[in-house]
Amino acid sequence: MDVDLRGSLEHAIKDLEVPAFVVGLHRTITIANEKASSLLLESQCHVLVGTDLSDILCPAAISAVSSWIDEVVEGIATQVKLGITLSLNTGPELWSVVSLKDRDDRLTGFLFQQVLITSALPDQSILDAFNNPTAAADLDDLARRELRWKTAVLSANQGVWDHDFELDRHFLSDTWREIRGISIGAAAAETTEDWLKTIHPDDVGRVKEQVALQESGATDVVNYTFRQRHADGHWIWILSRGRVVRRDENGLPVRIIGTDTDISDLKFVELERARLAERLGLAIEAAEMGQWEQRIETKNAIWDDRSLKMFGLRDNLTLRSETDWSKMIHPDDRDATMAHFHSCQLEKRDIACDFRIMTADGIEKFIRTRGKFVHDVEGGDRYIGVNLDLTKDHQKTVALEQARNRLEYESRHDPLTGLANRRRLDEVFLVQSSENESDLMGAMHLDIDRFKQINDNFGHDAGDFTLKHAASIMKKYLPKDVLVARVGGDEFVALFPQAQNRVVMEALAEQIIQAFSMPFFYNKIRIKAGISIGIAALDRQEQSESSLLILADIALYHAKKSGRGIWQFYEPHMKTQTSERIKIQDALISAFEHNEITCHYQPQFDAQTMKLSGIEALVRWESPTSGLIMPDQFLSAAEDMGLIAKLDELVLCQVLTDLECWEAEGLSVPHISVNVSAHRISDPDLGTWLQRMKLPPGKIVFELLESVFLDGEDATISANLSLLQSMGVDVEIDDFGTGHASIISLLRISPKRLKIDRELVEPIVHSPKRRGLLETIIRIGKMLDIEVVAEGVETNAHIAILRELQCDYLQGFALSKPMNSANMRELLIARR
Ligand code: C2E
Ligand code: CA
Ligand code: CA
After folding, report:
1. How large is the average pLDDT for residues 568-573?
2. Half-sphere exposure of 137 (CA within 13 A, CB side)
């Protein structure tokens, strides 16, 4: 380097704002300014001038810069300037390098000058120091690009490859090796074929295409991604960018330089994002959501296919105006929905609302929409949202709600009659009695008379029908504000919330009784039933639930006792009677347990011969404390407790035992009649019961109350009657004349005997008229071949008249009172 040049260079470099130095052709630093020294020597303790260039280049730059310098020296490369990274300071610095030539165009060295990223060009004033038109010429386009490119390469940790076909030189940078895990200095794939072997099979085809494309010279630049095997065995994603930097005279590339970037991480993120997007898409599809995106400025929205389908739109118009959409909202929901949308848009809030729509097909649907407000500087503010079709859920909710209401209703109502049930009665009662008013509350307790008989005689359907019939009568006659509840099998309670005067309640009860006493038909069966009613009224303040309803119950009991089919208003004395009754019931249970139930016998005599003709067994309660208790004291209690059948059975057992003993003694015993309750004769299992009882044929007679045969025909009763006949059990009709049995029903039953009730027998002594009635009954009996027994024969006068009237048998105190088993045995012995 000549002195002049050196001097002017030194001068120019010193004045530079940025660090700069000059390297001679032997690649040692010959000149450096202070800034370069202080920058590059921070961690070095020797003088910068004299340092070898390779000592301050970073490893990646050494080969690139060296080969470029070689080329410049050999005169192959054009004079370019390039960006490099020096190794001596911590951060990468960008330097430009310019070849220096003297006035005679001889290459004398290279100027390294740090540049700001924004200015890739060396300072013009330095270039001007060279009075050489070529050196002063500005960077040509290629050089400028290469400078930038190398700058980027070196700072972005990219692997560099450089194929020079003319020189047959293939350069691979250290980073290129690092990326692939190939240690520096180790051999990399020699030929293109070898290199292709390391590429993922799925990508080989694409890579070959790109390589061929570039080598054909068709394009200057190729970009492609592929997977390549890392030395560790895993795949890495590489982005390769190649550029033709030199062509021969035929235009074919002779040198291609490229960079490889490991984009595995980016690719991972990209794949992950694609996977996420796919998953999101699937989720949206699975949730049957429709998407929409609305620009707030225009209020127009883009709908996806599912949204269109949801709204029943088939026009495939994905861009829709807000009015277009609002027209489809159900008129009842439209204003509220639009108001919500507009206020959200105004306040830039997220949208969340449910509304109904009428689809294009006219179907009502329930839609839930959610919109996320997105502030978008470029595209304008907008909403990204989804629509959900909740119709099915809504229908389910409605169905559930209906089911819940139905259950709620059913849990408080009687399914048969539709009346309230006990639970509802209790609830209403509680509310009404807690209301702070002092007026009267009233209650009626209603009970169908002999309901069991209706059930037994005509079947359960008829029983159900009777209950419904009773319910309809109650609903018809009772005021609307009265709650009528079915509280048991055939029991009902009517609750009067308002002050009801006693006369009004009694009149209502009377109307119900009258209406229900009218015969009604069920499947051509004529049913005649009755109802008994207990009524009670109490001051709201003095009453608790139990009292009012219990008082009505007590009144009902008295109504039943006093003959059924009537009403009773509660009176205080009833309460004591009731408590006595409860005492009897308790005592009766213990009587059954302690075998205190037995029977006495009352003989019957042939009216003409006065011989013993029969015996009636009559139940007795032999109480160790109260002595002998008669049936009228406990029969109704036993009936209420459902113990009658059991009681009849006990009597029959006693009769059979006595009969067996007496006959074993050789005593001649006439037939013995037992009283049989109505339940037994309508019991479909009578046959089994009879077999179990083992009745001796022709010895036992069943006395049945006339009232049993009062109503209609019953298949079970008829079957049971023929069963009795076949087993040699005669039937007598008891208390004849009180129950209004018709002659026709008598004929049907064809009993062995009639027992004329005491009430008809008693007056014959004083009343010729009543005597005439008795005579007629006896004559009818004779005509129908039915024997007649007179009950309650109390005097000799009775005996005389009855004998005269041709009555067959006599039973009464005048002849013999009922007696215990021992006395009966005595009598049989005496009669032998
Ligand atoms: P019932 O079947 O009509 O029985 C005749 C009743 O009249 C008996 O009363 C008897 O003691 C009474 N008696 C007999 N002769 C005379 C008389 O000359 N004057 C008066 N005043 N009474 C007379 P008892 O034993 O108190 O029975 C009353 C009713 O209890 C019976 O009337 C019958 O309906 C029922 N009963 C009695 N024992 C049984 C039984 O084992 N089972 C069933 N289910 N009912 C029975
Ligand atoms: Ca009797
Ligand atoms: Ca009788």
Report:
1. 90
2. 13
